[in-house]
Design a protein that fits this description.
Layout (H helix, E strand, L loop, with lengths): L2 E4 L13 E4 L3 E9 L13 H18 L7 E9 L6 H15 L7 E6 L9 E9 L1
Parallel strand pairs: 4-5
Antiparallel strand pairs: 1-2, 3-6, 4-6
Helix pairs in contact: 1-2
């Protein structure tokens, strides 16, 4: 495995992810932002942030599998959330937890969350992009 995830002493222990990823592999993989669409291009979970987060994570897993990777290879995730407010955090965490259970991942790699005004489609509430490192 090319990625080691760490929660350093002196930083908060966050339930949703680890604070640091150490990469030792040699093949970098950059995923385009994944939104809540299925294989046929239909939007999943219209109006349901948790469902959309879950689908985004599943799409990231599918994209990585295509190039021989998995969530174990992710060094960094960036999550873009439309009109983010603190009360949406529980839905974000719920979606991550549901996807993590389906994907069998623990712990989750480092995450940066950003509030944005809009995404590429009017029904899209969240987008997730990833950087991975493979051996």
């Amino acid at each position: 495995m090319a990625i080691t995830l760490v929660n350093p002493e002196g930083l908060p222990k966050v339930d949703t992810h680890r604070q640091v990823a150490v990469a030792t592999g040699s093949k970098l993989v950059f995923l385009a932002g994944q939104v809540a669409v299925d294989a046929d291009g239909g939007t999943v979970g219209v109006g349901d942030l948790a469902a959309q987060v879950e689908q985004c994570y599943l799409n990231v897993g599918t994209a990585l599998a295509e190039v021989g990777g998995s969530f174990d290879d992710i060094a960094k995730l960036t999550v873009y959330i439309v009109d983010f407010t603190p009360d949406k955090m529980s839905l974000l965490v719920e979606g991550i937890a549901r996807a993590a259970a389906k994907l069998g991942i623990t712990p989750v790699p480092p995450i940066t969350g950003l509030g944005v005004s809009a995404l590429a489609g009017p029904d899209l509430l969240v987008e997730v992009d990833a950087t991975a490192v493979l051996d």
